[in-house]
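By way of example, we now present a protein record of this kind:
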Amino acid sequence: MKAHLTQSEHIALWNTFRSGQPDAFSTLYSLFSADLYRYGYNLVRNRQVVEDCLHELFLHLHENRSRLGPTDNIRFYLYRSLRRRLLDTVGRLARHGSDEYLFTDAAFTIQPHEHVLIESELAERQKALVTLALNQLPRRQKEILYLVYMKGLTYPQAAEVMAISLKSVYNTINIALMAMRRYVRQSVETSGALLSLIGWLVAIS
């Protein structure tokens, strides 16, 4: 099955999985496990923690599939579920005196196929500059931009994944894009290149 599903394909695959068909579980894992791992590792820079949470998530899905609710966006459903598991795990580690896995060090990278924000003709240096600008932002700002612009979640879905209000999503995105524009403009003025990026950042805001 193709990686980018339509809404009707999301619904059909999820309902087939909930009905107990083994092939549907394999398809879910094949389509979303690598993407979920990248998202988790962007938040918690510890491979073992992310792998454990991801394994627990898919085990929970498999064992409770008949009791799961409907969804028309599987990625949204899985992102929200994985993030909650990571938060719980990080919270337990923090209570035991470990701050090694706190979300404050979250960093996001742009994958080759993640061109929702970035048009295919942009040079590698431009992509690198966008990544640098993104990772200058506070954790919450860069996570919201990642979810909305790179992973295609709606503003309400991003709000639910991150357990914040819709108004906070709008405000945070506006602030983040302003900060990215400033960073890109300063970089362009310093290097004397990449002027098209400023227009791109203005266009998406």
About this structure: Residues 108-204 form a domain with the Arc Repressor Mutant, subunit A fold (CATH 1.10.10.10). Residues 20 and 63 are 10 Å apart (CA to CA). DSSP finds nine helices and no strands in the chain.
